[in-house]
């Protein structure tokens, strides 16, 4: 699985971290998303997809 985030779109809501805190994190200074794992294992797909769906900025893309 390939995950990408667009920090220019991110509004720092943190929904992605709630969904998958092993894949996404937020910068301490402004809450903007950072990617902890750009190639998570397949068993994380459901949670990573959920993060992409709930992201209010549509800043997360997932390719299987
Ligand atoms: S859910 Fe979207 S807007 Fe919120 S922190 Fe994550 S990437 Fe940024």
From TrEMBL:
Residues 1-29 form the 4Fe-4S ferredoxin-type domain. InterPro entries: 3Fe4S_ferredoxin, 4Fe4S_Fe-S-bd, Fe-S_cluster_ET. Keywords: 3Fe-4S, Electron transport, Iron, Iron-sulfur, Metal-binding, Transport. It comes from the Bacteria. The keyword Transport applies. Its cofactor is [3Fe-4S] cluster. The keyword Transmembrane helix does not apply. SUPFAM superfamilies: 4Fe-4S ferredoxins. Ferredoxins are iron-sulfur proteins that transfer electrons in a wide variety of metabolic reactions. This is Ferredoxin.
């Amino acid at each position: 699985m390939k995950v990408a985030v667009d920090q220019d779109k991110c509004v720092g809501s943190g929904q992605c971290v709630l969904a998958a805190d092993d894949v996404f994190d937020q910068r301490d200074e402004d809450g903007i998303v950072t990617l902890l794992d750009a190639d998570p294992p397949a068993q994380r797909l459901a949670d990573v997809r959920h993060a992409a769906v709930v992201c209010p900025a549509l800043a997360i893309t997932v390719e299987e």
